[in-house]
Amino acid sequence: MKGQEWYQATEVAEEYDEKRFSRGGRLIDRREKQAVLDAIGPVEDKRVLEIACGTGRFTVMLAERGADITGLDISGPMLREGREKARHAGVDDHLEFMRGDAARLPFPDDHFDTVFAMRFFHLADTPAKFLTEMARVSKNQVFFDTFNRFSTRSLYNWLLPMGSRLYGASEVEDLVATAGLELADAEHDFVVPYGFYRKVPDWVAGPFRRADTAIGGSPVGDALASVSYWDARV
Question: CATH topology for 4-149+162-187?
């Protein structure tokens, strides 16, 4: 995985949410959470695994909605932040955080109803291996996002501390098929890359997001999108 040492640093975990999801980054946070909720639907009593759960943004959100959820991450400091977030939300006894390797998931086959990963596959050096493991432990659904090769994301990719693996649509479709999955749905969004929204205040981000959404809804929107959300079935 790219940037493991950087990602597991305590100071990175402590500042992670504030740096990415404050200011204009709140728009990203809301959109990503809505994408997860739209994809996996009602979660009450559903057994869910989140891969690379980080600080628990999605893990805690789904626990609050009644999911039986496990969050797995390689970073101890990230998991500490997640546990604290769960405690503040009052759901620390309704979920489980585990430290582990997504390439060797410590669960039996078909153990979860849904397995998902957000902000993960851009770091994956062997994406087919990770997606196959996700498919193995899911009995129904696998959901994940990617950053797209032919998009504005590529313009600043080299500036990022971990870089990004960028994907074309055909590459993702091949990965899905190799993992024994069938693609059920896909959504594409964010012509303007995430990095821009994180750097600007709300009053700047709002108008740009409205324009971004309008372009995204046009005939050229999918081709220009920097982020894609992929919903697959076992």
Answer: Rossmann fold (3.40.50)
